[in-house]
Amino acid sequence: AVKKDSFADFIVGEEKAAQRLTQPYGIALYKGKLYVADTGAGGLAIFDLAQQRFSFMTGNGAGRIKRPINIRIDADGTRYVTDTGRDQVLVYDRDDRYVKAFGVEGQFRPVDLAITGDRLYVADIAHHQIHVLDKGTGRLLFKFGKAGSGEGELFHPTNIALGPDGDIYVVETSNFRVQRFSADGKPVRTYGSVGSAPGSFARPKGIAMDRAGRLLVGDAAFQNVQIFDNSGKLLMFFGQTDGRADGLNLPAGVTVDYENIALFRRFADPKFNIDYLILVASQFGPNKVDIFGFGRMDGMDYSEGKPAVSPTSKPVS
After folding, report:
1. pLDDT of residue 303
2. d(C-alpha 112, C-alpha 123), whole Å
3. Is the distance from CB of 286 to CB of 254 less than 8 angstroms?
4. Strands (E) located in 31-186
5. Among 301, 300, 305, 297, which residue's Cα sits nearest to residue 269?
6. Which of 53, 119, 127, 206 is placed for a possible disulfide with 48 were both Cys, Cβ 3.0 to 4.6 Å?
7. How far apart are CA 78 and CA 97, in angstroms?
8. Could you report the per-residue pLDDT of 122-135, keeping only the tens digit for each?
9. What is the 3-state secondary structure (H, E, C) of 211-244?
10. Whole-angstrom Cα distance, residue 315 to residue 111?
11. 191 beta partners
12. What 8-state DSSP symbol labels residue 108?
């Protein structure tokens, strides 16, 4: 059996009392390290799961972090941080050393980005647009979107994800929907609408895509994450719905991870087969990061094609 505090020990070891996340938003897991963009604390909390070490990265000089919203990590380990305190995208190498910054005064207020090939798709919440930058130089290639609620228009795009089809999926918090674009910025379709019933949105924020093209969308008002197939059909939802204090609380960043399952395997039911991990950052409440396993339980009938979501661990406070 896993003792109550073993997950906290696993995350930060003896240093677990030294740091508490303040107001996390974005989250990423890369080669055994959990990165959390802590907006309130003005830096990146880094939990080395293999070494059971904790560090907090604020940068210095030209690489100083002010108000990080999201962090995305490229396949080569390059870290991209969207910073609304600087209105720039900050770039760090795989050793967390500052490399450069993208964005000039007045260009954008970046809140999230997606990485594909040699491009960065940057969500600009101030101008209701997506800026497409050259990944190496930061040069603007093109941009799309304008303020509005029609097809191809955006209103407060807050989070963005790359689909396995190469399309770009953008959460519009103030339009209560997810809008899908082709790689060249052409509108494809929308998902969801404002409402209080399952399958609708009240305050959507975080988004992630799995390899099957399913959309995982966090809603800060519903305190949950909803999972849709690529046609927009609601498959399931999970999170806090019964008023308990220890569930999701204003969930923001959502991401999926296929590479680090082994690190969390022992925290799941032995009969539960994990396909991938789902990481959710909550901005408030006692639990700031929750990690779930998406998969199938041995002996259960999944004839309707609905896998299960199960907590794999105790949350990170």
Report:
1. 72
2. 5
3. no
4. 33-38, 43-48, 53-57, 68-73, 79-83, 88-92, 98-102, 110-116, 119-124, 129-134, 140-144, 157-162, 168-172, 177-181
5. 297
6. 53
7. 10
8. 999 999 999 999 99
9. CCCCEEEEECCCCEEEEECCCCCEEEEEECCCCC
10. 25
11. 178
12. -
The two structure tokens encoding residue 154: 């955006």
CA triplet 285, 36, 172: central angle to 5 degrees? 75
Average pLDDT, the chain: 90
**Distance from chain centroid for Cα 308:** 20
Q: How many CB atoms lie within 10 A of CB 184?
A: 10
Q: What is the CA radius of gyration of the chain?
A: 19
- Burial of residue 177 (CB within 10 Å: 0-12, 13-18, 19+) is buried
Give the separation between CA 66 and CA 86, rounded to whole angstroms.
7
pTM value is: 0.91
- For residues 160 and 11, give the distance between their C-alpha atoms in angstroms, rounded to a whole number: 27
Strand 224-228, strand 79-83: pairing: unpaired
C-alpha span between 58 and 40 (Å, rounded)? 12
Q: Is 143 in a helix, a strand, or coil? A: strand
pLDDT at 241 over 70: no
Sign of CA dihedral 58, 19, 96, 119: negative
The helix (H) or strand (E) run that includes residue 261 is helix 261-264
Strands 33-38, 272-282: pairing kind? unpaired
CB 140 within 8 A of CB 122: no
